[in-house]
Amino acid sequence: MDFDLTDDERRFRDELRGWLDRNLPEAWRSRHPKEPWTDERRELARRWQAKLAEGRYVALDWPVAWGGRDATVAERILVNTELLRARAPRLIGHVGLDLVGPAIIEHGTDEQKRRHLEPIRTASELWCQGFSEPGAGSDLGGLRTRAVLDGDHWVVSGQKVWTSVAEVADWCFLLARTDVDAKKHAGISALLVDMKQPGIEVRPLRQMTGEAEFNEVFFDQVRVPRENVVGKPGDGWKIAMGILAHERGPMWAFMFHGYISEDLSNLVALAKRRGLDADPRLRERLARAWTDVEVMRLLGSRSLTAETRGEPIGPKTSLEKLFGSELSQRLRELTMDVLGAEGLLGMDDPRADWEGRWQRFWLFSRADTIMGGTSEIQRQVIAHQLLGLPR
Ligand SMILES: Cc1cc2nc3c(=O)[nH]c(=O)nc-3n(C[C@H](O)[C@H](O)[C@H](O)COP(=O)(O)OP(=O)(O)OC[C@H]3O[C@@H](n4cnc5c(N)ncnc54)[C@H](O)[C@@H]3O)c2cc1C
Hints:
Blueprint: H1 7-23, H2 39-54, H3 73-85, H4 94-107, H5 110-122, E1 127-130, E2 146-150, E3 153-164, E4 171-177, E5 188-194, E6 200-205, E7 214-225, E8 229-230, H6 236-247, H7 250-273, H8 280-308, H9 316-339, H10 357-364, H11 375-386
Parallel strand pairs: 1-4
Antiparallel strand pairs: 2-3, 3-7, 4-5, 5-8, 6-7
Helix pairs in contact: 1-3, 3-7, 4-5, 4-6, 7-8, 7-9, 8-9, 9-10, 9-11
The structure holds flavin-adenine dinucleotide.
The site of flavin-adenine dinucleotide has 18 residues, from strand 1, strand 3 and helix 11.
């Protein structure tokens, strides 16, 4: 592992720091990188992404011709780290930037590129990811939403679930079954679906935090132009797997490390404020947490090194996902122990410390071991693919 920045990377980072000083107003800086969305925060985040796009600090991995920089993974991690450090607003268009854009760039037609890439970059259009269904989450290949060709349109019917940001999304990157006779994975296609049309109903799902950040989405005879298929009909599985691989790897590991190291320093500050920092049991748990956060950083560095050398990372990303998401939950449990009975006060209670964010982050952390692949699935991958155990 090489932990030092190269001269070029240092120059790039210093340029970015200067740009952030000039372009990120103090009032836009957030109090936590994962603040819950409100209408006001969403609006600000859209403006912020448009500004980042002006400076070409989003979609960094995209080709220069489409507004990117052809950046290396190390440069992208640098940008994420600096944005976190500067307390920049959360990126609102990440589904488009990290999933849909790369899929269109790799598999899309020129017309799809011309139509969609720039609005994704500038957040003038937001996207959601329509993959999971009530009977198809871990076993995504079992999805049943149908798209049937009728003249020059696909007619889509079915239901998606847990669709984040569908309530505000302009477009959906949808996986649907276009061939029921083909083998399970071979019959799936990826469609670009305009969310603002008849036949689509978005029903919010209220989470235990009280917010509704994801939804059920119902499609009833929705007509999608034939040319909105990405790649060829039947390529959907291959494209989706490529997209999901984007969700992981060193980018994810460093981003997650950024969040949890922020949480740990907040927690240490809280323990000090409460005069609990001399408690030997708490000190031991905090030291363990610090070590684990450091391990997370090293896991990220390891996969960054592998990626930089062009080595496959493959199933090792499951180790990072499993370790990081369970660490996140342990940290939040520890926070609740430090708060004691006060942890019962939520964001709606004016007496709550830090406006109740502690409780909200603790509740939300239950999702960490579910989204992007559950812990059980990660353990299956590790057992089978890394340890060579039988299925
Ligand atoms: C916050 C959040 C945001 C999300 N956003 C989106 C989104 O925008 N778009 C989208 O498409 N999806 C989204 N998801 C859905 C997510 O991808 C699924 O929740 C996840 O893939 C698990 O699928 P499931 O919920 O259907 O659980 P299931 O697959 O039904 O699993 C239920 C339980 O069974 C266990 N299990 C299943 N199969 C096995 C097995 N083979 N071996 C051992 N145990 C097993 C699981 O670990 C789990 O505990 C989101 C989820 C969350 C929590």
